[in-house]
Amino acid sequence: MNPFPLIFLILQLPSAVASLPAPVNLRIESLNLNHVLRWDPGPGSPPGTQFRIYFPIFGSREMKGNPVNSTSCELNLKNPEKNHVIAVEAFYNSTTSPRSTITFHPVADTVIGPPLLSVARWGTCIQGNISMPDLGRYTKAINYDFSFTVLWRKGNDGEIQELKAHNGSFILSNLEKDVEYCIQVLPKARVNENTQPSEWNCTFTSISEP
């Protein structure tokens, strides 16, 4: 009997047992500066594998998160205007995987929106007011310097026209009487391209007096 195949298998066994695959497919879902980190277990991860998240805090220090059994975690990042390198590692019994990392810039990468659009009519004019979402404690600290593209049309199938607004209000004037107009607003920000439009908001101009 040739002993070499058996010896080869025995030598390979400890490394196979000791290795643990790193988490894969790291991604961050972020809406209005509320962040959720998600990932998938590495291929071949044993049942019962747990995970630990590492993220930067003040200066160059690093905070180690509590172990989690799930594959998602809410992130509370203190400096939203800086890049953050976030790492996830798997561990099982006394074995730890390599770390997987993702880079995230909260201010630039979060999705902003959708805005709230309210409209009021008088005569043949429609005034619109735009309110952006609340960003929590960052609302006053971060200046996104929004501008707005206002899209409007007659009813649901009219030709779409647009105008620019650089603050939170606008007026559509010289419209037809007793006609339904639908309006949508798309915000734009210099430091963030991930903005959502408002819902279409429809209203009628006033009926002409006899």
Written description of the protein model:
By secondary structure, the chain is mostly beta strands. It has 2 domains: 22-109, Sandwich (Immunoglobulin-like), CATH 2.60.40; 116-204, Immunoglobulin-like, CATH 2.60.40.10. The protein is 9% helix and 42% strand. The protein is built from 2 helices and 15 strands. Strands 3, 4, 6, 7 and 8 form a 5-stranded antiparallel beta sheet that branches. A 4-stranded antiparallel beta sheet has the order 12-11-14-15, with no helix packed on it. The chain has a 3-stranded antiparallel beta sheet with strand order 1-2-5, with no helix packed on it. β1 and β2 (34-40) form a beta hairpin. The protein is elongated, with a radius of gyration of 27 Å. One of its GO terms (molecular function) is cytokine receptor activity. Residues 22-110 form the Fibronectin type-III domain.
Features:
single chain; 210 residues; mainly beta; Immunoglobulin-like; 2 domains; five-stranded antiparallel sheet; four-stranded antiparallel sheet; 2 helices; elongated
CATH superfamily heading of the largest domain: Immunoglobulins
Number of domains: 2
Name of the CATH first level of the largest domain: Mainly Beta
Averaged pLDDT: 87
Looking at the overall shape, the CATH architecture of the largest domain is: Sandwich
Helix count, per DSSP?
A: 2
List the secondary-structure elements in sequence, H or E.
HEEEEEEEEHEEEEEEE
As residue ranges, the low-confidence spans are: 3-17
Q: What is the beta-strand fraction? A: 35-45%
- Rg over C-alpha atoms, rounded to the nearest angstrom: 27 Å
Q: Termini separation (Å)?
A: 110 Å
Number of strands: 15
GO molecular function: cytokine receptor activity
Signal peptide: 1-18
Keywords: Signal
Pfam family, one: Tissue_fac
